[in-house]
From TrEMBL:
Sequence positions that bind Mn(2+): 148, 150, 219
Annotated source species: Aquirufa novilacunae
Entry-linked Gene3D superfamilies: 1.10.1740.10, NAD(P)-binding Rossmann-like Domain (3.40.50.720)
Enzyme Commission number(s) of this protein: 1.1.1.267
Sections of the chain in a coiled coil: none
Database matches in InterPro entries: DXP_reductoisomerase, DXP_reductoisomerase_C, DXP_reductoisomerase_N, DXPR_C, DXPR_C_sf, NAD(P)-bd_dom_sf
1-deoxy-D-xylulose 5-phosphate reductoisomerase C-terminal domain span: 144-227
GO molecular function per UniProt: 1-deoxy-D-xylulose-5-phosphate reductoisomerase activity
Lineage: Bacteria, Pseudomonadati, Bacteroidota, Cytophagia, Cytophagales
Annotated residues for binding of NADPH: 10-13, 122, 124, 203
Reactions this protein catalyses: 2-C-methyl-D-erythritol 4-phosphate + NADP(+) = 1-deoxy-D-xylulose 5-phosphate + NADPH + H(+)
Functional summary from the UniProt entry: Catalyzes the NADPH-dependent rearrangement and reduction of 1-deoxy-D-xylulose-5-phosphate (DXP) to 2-C-methyl-D-erythritol 4-phosphate (MEP).
The protein's name: 1-deoxy-D-xylulose 5-phosphate reductoisomerase
Domain 1-deoxy-D-xylulose 5-phosphate reductoisomerase N-terminal positions: 4-130
Length: 386
C-alpha cells in the first residue's frame, strides 16, 4: 500500500486524487493532507480520511483546524515551513504536488532531497527551476511522474521507447473558450467568460491560464525539462475535442498518441499507481461518438503568452521564473477585475524582458527573482489599472 501526501488536497487535482484513492482502498492510504486557505474543506477531508498529518498554510486558520480535529489523533501543523517538513516523513511513500503556482517549488525540492517519488501536478516547479529540479531528481534517483494530462500522455507514449530518439513531442491544446477570437474580441473578454472552459473542470488560476494559452506555454517549458527536448522539438497543436492528449514523433516518422476522454482522474491514477495500470470506473472513449477529430495551428500572434513561453525557454536562465511570477500576478489582477484580458500578456512581456536576467541561477536566485518579479508586476498593475 502506498502512503500518499497530497499537497493541495482541497483543489481540483487534490479532490479528484481522493476520489481515485477511494476507488482503490487496498492500494493507497492518505498520510498527509494540506491546504492553504480552505480550512473547512480540509477539516472535512481530514475527518473522512484520518491522515496522520494535516497542514493549513494560512497560519491564521491554525486554531480553527486544530480545534476541529482535537481528539482525532491527527497532528495539525501550519505555515510554509511545516509544508516543507511533512513531505520528508518516513511514513510518506509518494508526494502528489497539487499546489497552485510557485508555492509548489520548495516543498518539491524538500521531497526530492528526502528521496520521495513525485507525482507532479504543479507544472510551475519545473517552469521556474527545471534546470535545478531535474538534475536533483536524477542525483537522488527520484522519479518525477507527470500528472498534467498532456505530459502523462507523452510519458505513456514513451514507455518502452527509451532506446528510440524523439524527433519531437506534440502537445495538444483545446484552444480554450476564445479559440478563433481576434484581438478586438479578446479586449472585451470578461472574468466570467474566461472561467468557462469548454472541456475541463479546473481551478480558477489554471482556467484563466488555459483561456490565455499561458497554461500551454507553461506546459511547453515543463515538457522540455521532463523529456529533455529542445524548444525546436516541441510543437503545439490546437485540438478542440481534447481527446488526443498529446503525441510523440520518433525519428522514423512514426507517431504515438494517448487518447481518452478529458478526465483528470486518469492521469492522476496512472501517476499514483505507476508502473501498474489499475482498473478504473471512468467513462470510456467511444470512437463512434466522435466521428471527427480536428487539429489546427496555434495562434501565437493573438495569444501572445504561448510565444512568450517559447521565448523564455529559448533564452534560458531565470527567464521562465520571471515569466511565471509575472503571470501569477497578472491572473490575480484579472480575476480581481483590475486589468483586462489582453493586459495579462502585456504585463508578462514587460516583466520577463525588463527583469534582471541570471544565466545560471541558484535556488536562492530563483527565490529572489520570483520575489522581485512580483513586486515589478504589482507596480505595473497599479499603474495600469482599468
Amino acid at each position: 500500500m502506498k502512503r500518499i501526501a497530497i499537497l493541495g488536497s482541497t483543489g481540483s487535482i487534490g479532490t479528484q486524487a481522493l476520489e481515485v484513492i477511494a476507488e482503490h482502498p487496498s492500494e493507497f492510504s492518505v498520510e498527509v493532507l494540506t491546504a492553504q486557505n480552505q480550512a473547512d474543506l480540509l477539516i472535512t477531508q481530514a475527518l473522512a480520511w484520518k491522515p496522520a498529518h494535516v497542514v493549513i498554510g494560512n497560519e491564521a486558520k491554525y486554531a480553527q483546524v486544530k480545534e476541529a480535529l482535537a481528539g482525532t489523533g491527527i497532528q495539525v501543523h501550519a505555515g510554509a515551513q511545516a509544508l516543507e517538513e511533512v513531505v520528508t516523513l518516513d511514513s510518506v511513500d509518494i508526494v502528489l504536488t497539487a499546489l497552485v503556482g510557485y508555492a509548489g517549488l520548495l516543498p518539491t525540492v524538500k521531497a526530492i532531497k528526502a528521496s520521495k517519488p513525485i507525482a507532479l501536478a504543479n507544472k510551475e516547479t519545473l517552469v521556474v527551476a527545471g534546470a535545478l529540479i531535474m538534475p536533483l531528481a536524477r542525483e537522488m534517483g527520484v522519479p518525477i511522474l507527470p500528472v498534467d494530462s498532456e505530459h502523462s500522455a507523452i510519458f505513456q507514449c514513451l514507455m518502452g521507447e527509451s532506446h528510440n530518439p524523439i524527433e519531437k513531442v506534440i502537445l495538444t491544446a483545446s484552444g480554450g473558450p476564445f479559440r478563433g477570437f481576434s484581438w478586438e474580441q479578446l479586449a472585451q473578454v470578461t472574468r466570467a467568460q474566461a472561467l468557462k472552459h469548454p472541456n475541463w473542470s479546473m481551478g480558477a488560476k489554471i482556467t484563466i491560464d488555459s483561456a490565455s494559452l499561458m497554461n500551454k506555454g507553461l506546459e511547453v517549458i515543463e515538457a522540455a525539462w521532463l523529456f529533455d527536448v529542445k524548444p525546436s522539438e516541441i510543437e503545439v497543436v490546437v485540438h478542440p475535442q481534447s481527446i488526443v492528449h498529446s503525441l510523440v514523433q520518433f525519428e522514423d516518422g512514426s507517431i504515438k498518441a494517448q487518447v481518452g476522454l478529458p478526465d483528470m482522474k486518469l492521469p492522476i491514477q496512472f501517476a499514483l499507481g505507476y508502473p501498474n495500470r489499475m482498473k478504473a470506473s471512468f467513462p470510456r472513449f467511444d470512437f463512434k461518438l466522435y466521428p471527427s477529430l480536428t487539429f489546427e495551428q496555434a495562434d501565437t500572434r493573438t495569444f501572445r503568452n504561448l510565444g512568450l513561453a517559447f521565448q523564455a525557454l529559448e533564452q534560458g536562465g531565470n527567464k521562465a521564473c520571471l515569466l511565471n511570477a509575472a503571470n501569477e500576478v497578472a491572473v490575480a489582477a484579472f480575476l480581481e477585475d483590475q486589468i483586462g484580458f489582453l493586459a495579462m500578456s502585456d504585463l508578462n512581456d514587460y516583466v520577463m524582458n525588463q527583469g534582471t536576467f541570471i544565466a545560471n541561477p541558484t535556488l536562492e536566485d530563483y527565490i529572489e527573482s520570483d520575489k522581485l518579479s512580483r513586486i515589478m508586476a504589482q507596480d505595473w498593475v497599479d499603474k495600469n489599472r482599468k
